[in-house]
Every structure is written in C-alpha cells, then in structure tokens.
Amino acid sequence: MNTDSRLSCAFQAHISTRSRISAQSALAKGREVSLSTRALLQKGGGYSKLDSITPYRKARVSLPRAVASAATQQAEERVSSNAQASTSDAEPLLTRKQSQESVADKLIDLFAAKSPLEWRKLIAFSKQWASLSDGVFRRLEERQAAAKDPAEKSAMRKLARRLKTVHDELTEYTELLQCFRERGSHEWESFLSMHRPSFTADFFSHLENVVMAAHADPKQQEELAAMATRILALVTAYDETTANEEAMSGAAMQFDDLLQVSSLEEADRRIDGLADSGQLNPALLLTMAKAYSAAKDTDMTKEEVKEIMGHLYFKAKESFAKMQPPEVRILKHLLTIESPADRAEQMRGAFTPGPELETEQQDFLHTTPQQLLKTVDLILQTYERSAGSASMLGQAGTLMNPEVITRMKDIQAAIQKDL
C-alpha cells in the first residue's frame, strides 16, 4: 500500500454516531466524564473556569449594540452620501478631496468623543472601516501638521497613535478568524498550537463584538458563535495540557518513538496500542498537532514528510475519539438530529442493550438512561455557570448556540419523564 492509499484510509474513516473531537479537549487522566463533556462542549459550550489563562485586562465598558450600531451607521451614511457625490467624473478633484476630508473629520470627531474600549465595538460593527481607515490616518497626520496650538497638536498625535494601535490589533484578529475559515475544522487544533499567544482576552472580546454585529444574518451569527466557543475550547485544552510539564516531556519521547517505525502500518498499530493502554493522552496529541502544523506551514519540508505527519496526527485523533465513554458519543450523535421524533427513536435504541460493534461507517453503542442523564446534567450545569462569568469563558457561554442548548434540555426532559 502506497503512502497516498494509507492516508486515504486514515481520512475516510468515519463514525456516524459522533463527530471528531478536538485533540486537546481532555482533562487530566482519571476524569473520564468531565473529559468527554469538555470535548462535547467544543461544538457550542463553555467551561467552568478559565481564570488561569485569562490575561489581565481592564474592565470593559459595555456599549449597547444599538448605540454602537447607530453611531457607526450615522457615520457611514455620511460616508455613503459623500462618496456618491464624489464619483462623478466631472467633479473637480479639489471638491472630491474636500469631501474625503470631511468624512475623515467626522470619523475623527466620533472617535475623539469615545473611549478606546468603545472604538473596538464601533470598528467591529462598521462595514466600511477597512476602506476608510487609511484616509482617517492620513487626515490625522494632516491635522497634526497643520495645528498651531501645541495642545491640539498633542491631542491629534495621541489620538492617531492610540487609534492605530487598536486598528492594527483588530486587523490581526480579523486575519486570524479568516485563517480558521480557510482551514477545515479538523486542522484548527494544529493551527492554534502554533499561534496560541495571539488568542488573548481581547481577541475573544472582539469575536464577541463580531458575533453581535452579525445580528441581521442569523445564520452567519450562529456560525460565528459556534466558532467562538470551539476556539475557546481549544485554547482552554491547550493551556491545561501544556501546564503539565511532565506530561509534555513524556509525550515528546512517545512521539519520538513513533517516528522510529519502519512503516505507517506499524505506526498505526502503535497508536492503537497506546489507545488501548490509556497512554494516548492530550499531551501526545498536542505534540503531534504542533509537528503537523510546523511541517504543513513551511516550504522547507518535503511533501512526503507533511503527509506522514498528517497521517499520524489524524490517526491519533480517531483513536482518541474512540476512548470516549459511550454516553458522550451517543449524546453528540443525538444533538445532530433535528427532528424530535427521530431523536426520541434514536435515544430509545441507545437504551437497548446489545453488543458494541464497530464498522468502517458506524459504531453500535448503548448506555443507560441514568448515565446519559448524568452527562447531560453535567454539561448544562457547566454551561449555566460559565454564562454568568465575567471572564472570557463567560463571554463564550453567552454565545453558545441556543439550538444546541434547547435540544440538550429536550433530551434531559425526555429522560427524566421516562425515569
């Protein structure tokens, strides 16, 4: 079997009863239910704590969405009307320049009247800031150079410096989000492992603003909210895993052993053996994710090496997913079913005892109503705690897909009724 065929086998493996979990979505060994529920929450949930990874940040000033939207809309309406007037070929160049300066001056006055914390919402809600920003910064330089009053000159210089800092920061966050969109969700863990320092509290604050700004498009808003909670889950798992230096050191040695094998088939057998013995842990998955991302994102690595790293990483993710308790995998499957009637039928089937079988396309699993209810209760309790938190975790909790929560509560009610 050639390398392409082996890779194809690894990528085609699919289990209909669950979606692939994040490689870093586990807690420490010995906390299986919490480990699994953490993985589940990556699709739209929160976690119980994040203080240990939340960078220091000044208290945010909450600017109501309507205020931010109205302020941005008013400024952009002026931009739009002036821009239309400036498109005529017959219009003198001087008039067009004056019109652009007028637009920039209005935006400068708007920013001068707001705090830097409020700028972030104004920019996130703006659809035209990307095209207007250069003109605003040029106008700030012009006004600073033309100012005769030292106080005014200092004010323009300070405003330009602070606004440029916020602009550059939010531009970086926007580029990070675009990188996630351009990658398949199965590659998010490896990407994050190489860019962890960029995912700060301010990044999640901006992401929250972006989600709110998409209120006119519910579908887009739902996708952004799901992305927010998934990224936060990956950050949480990454930080908890890397905090264990002993585990990371052991994982490095395990990964080095894997690279000494003579074939991919032998590597697959070793990975399965690690999973069977419980040694396939988040630290090893994170180490493999970093290696895959480093190989994939450089032109210095041969394509064959990239393929091997990808094969090992995704094989390990598959094996790790099968280590989840059956009730977690069953719940993840139930949450993908839209019809309440179909969901109830599938749930009844999951409560029917039988042999646990595995095929290339399906896993046949079963659990008890009590175990499934215990898992659902734990997830909902974690969500409710996080939604009331003032940390990044709390922000993500407020963005969780309400449809997922509704389905989970329906499952909870159905089990409680039968019990």
From TrEMBL:
InterPro entries cross-referenced by the UniProt entry: At4g37920-like (IPR040320)
Compositionally biased spans, kind Polar residues: 72-89
Region (Disordered): 72-96
Domain of life from the UniProt record: Eukaryota
Protein name: Uncharacterized protein
Species of origin: Coccomyxa viridis
Lineage: Eukaryota, Viridiplantae, Chlorophyta, core chlorophytes, Trebouxiophyceae
